[in-house]
Design goal:
Layout: H1 10-23, E1 25-28, H2 31-44, E2 50-55, E3 58-64, E4 67-72, H3 77-90, E5 95-100, E6 117-121, E7 123-126
Parallel strand pairs: 1-7, 4-5, 5-6
Antiparallel strand pairs: 2-3, 3-4
């Protein structure tokens, strides 16, 4: 169980979320189905999260404590970078994880910025 209710350093939360997402092989037809599969994974591990959280400039797919998770299966890296910049400017998150099926999205990773942006490539099969 991953808990954000105890004083866990955000880096540990990010590491644990990365591990959960990497271990699972997802089957999905579209991004909506992938969101449902990720929600099921988080539920199975008793992770407290919010879905479709509105922030200025957009809507974050998942929020775990102060960590945002943005799911992407298509789109350009440039578009994703602009979206993430709006999330950074919202000032709500201590870390942002991009969960993607596209290795090209790794260019948006910036673990040295505040908040850090990390990327995890999801395994699985788009149907």
């Amino acid at each position: 169980m991953l808990s954000t209710e105890t004083p866990t350093p955000e880096a540990d939360v990010v590491t644990q979320l990365h591990a959960l997402l990497r271990r699972r092989r997802f089957r999905y037809r579209n991004e909506v189905a992938l969101h449902a599969a990720i929600a099921s994974l988080l539920d199975a591990h008793q992770v407290n999260y919010e879905r479709e959280v509105r922030v200025p400039g957009g809507r974050v797919d998942f929020v775990v404590g102060t960590v945002a998770i943005e799911v992407k299966i298509k789109g350009s890296s440039e578009s994703l970078s602009r979206q993430l910049q709006r999330y950074v400017e919202a000032g709500r998150f201590t870390a942002i994880i991009v969960a993607t099926t596209r290795p090209a999205h790794h260019v948006v990773a910036d673990p040295d910025r505040t908040p850090p942006i990390t990327v995890v490539t999801l395994g699985g099969l788009g149907l």
